[in-house]
Specification:
The complex is a heterodimer of chains A (127) and B (202). Chain A has 127 residues and is mostly helical. Chain A contains six helices and two strands. The chains are: A mainly alpha (127), B alpha+beta (202). At the A-B interface, α3 of A face α2 of B.
């Protein structure tokens, strides 16, 4: 197995062991992503890091593959306005923090979807 | 063609009956064999409790209160003609289980919803194991706590599972309640724990 693939497996193992520890939430390049990561850690990680109340976990590719098939505008709208899932799971508006601006919520969504894509790519590379 | 006499038939029937009785008595009493560990039992009980509570929260409270807005959920559900809160439903279930298991000596387990920051003082931890377990699940999110404790000369396997703020109503109720000792909960925070206690030998 190529070194890169081994690194990917190690990365996935570390992520699963971390169980939501900050090490699992990789830094993605760009200032917007850094801002989004900080907002996400402060507001979204408590639920999305652990799957609380059915929140999709970005380190779990199966959770996010179907969601990433929607356009980003839909994901923004769900995060800003709130959203009821098919079995009445509930994403509260702005993650329950009414103080967050639209731009801040969008930055957090960008980071979370970036994180989900990161772990989906890692899984693809190990196949 | 030879026909068996009545005596022979009786003898054959008696032998067959004895063989059947022997076979039945040789079958192990599977229903009463201790094949599940206390930890697996506690985990199984918790999965059932948590799933029932999740279904109530989603299919009843989220649907009728949040989405369709046809009824409220309230701590004072009788006065307000409202739904019981998910935590109340869970607590009422544990009280009914306690009442029913008093009459079932073989079903000796108990469970309760407790917190280090309870609105009602009677829901704070009472044993060292409960306190240690509640502190552990609050400090180690995503993990459960297991231990063995001795109470009144009897040994118990005690498991503690995190109770998390899964909906805005959990947060607002605890943060706004006049009797709440903590008012900075946020969605997704560990607010307390489910304590399951099962008697063990030894």
């Amino acid at each position: 197995m190529a070194l890169r693939a081994w690194c990917s497996v190690l990365g996935l193992l570390l992520a699963s062991v971390a169980g939501g520890g900050e090490s699992a939430y990789v830094n993605l390049s760009g200032e917007t992503m850094a801002q989004g990561r900080a907002i996400w850690l402060a507001n979204c990680e408590r639920c999305h890091g652990y799957g609380v109340a059915g929140a999709p976990i970005p380190m779990t590719p199966a959770d996010w593959k179907p969601r990433l098939e929607q356009d980003q505008a839909t994901l923004y709208r769900h995060a800003i306005e709130g959203f009821f899932g098919p079995r009445y799971t509930m994403m509260p508006p702005r993650g329950g923090n009414a103080q967050l601006s639209d731009a801040e919520v969008k930055a957090a969504v960008d980071y979370m979807t970036g994180l989900a894509r990161h772990y989906i790519n890692q899984q693809e590379q190990t196949k | 063609m030879k026909v068996m006499s009545r005596k022979k038939w009786t003898a054959v029937a008696a032998v067959a009956g004895l063989c059947t009785a022997a076979a039945v008595s040789a079958v192990p009493d599977v229903a009463n064999q201790p094949v599940i560990s206390p930890k697996a039992m506690a985990d199984a009980l918790h999965v059932v409790m948590d799933s029932d509570r999740t279904v109530y929260t989603r299919q009843i409270v989220n649907r009728l209160v949040k989405k369709d807005k046809v009824i409220e959920a309230s701590e004072h559900f009788e006065d307000d003609k409202a739904l019981v809160l998910p935590a109340q439903m869970f607590r009422f279930g544990s009280e009914l289980v306690a009442e029913r298991t008093e009459k079932l000596p073989d079903v000796a387990f108990s469970y309760s919803l407790q917190s280090l920051w309870p609105i009602n003082k009677q829901n704070e931890p009472k044993t060292d194991a409960e306190k240690e377990g509640l502190e552990y699940v609050a400090d180690n999110k995503g993990e459960n706590f297991y231990t063995v404790e001795e109470l009144g000369g009897k040994k118990y396997f005690t498991a503690v599972y995190a109770d998390t703020a899964v909906a805005p109503v959990c947060v607002s109720c605890h943060n706004d309640h006049k009797d709440s000792p903590r008012r900075d909960f946020e969605l997704g925070d560990v607010m307390g724990g489910v304590v399951i206690r099962i008697p063990v030998q030894g």
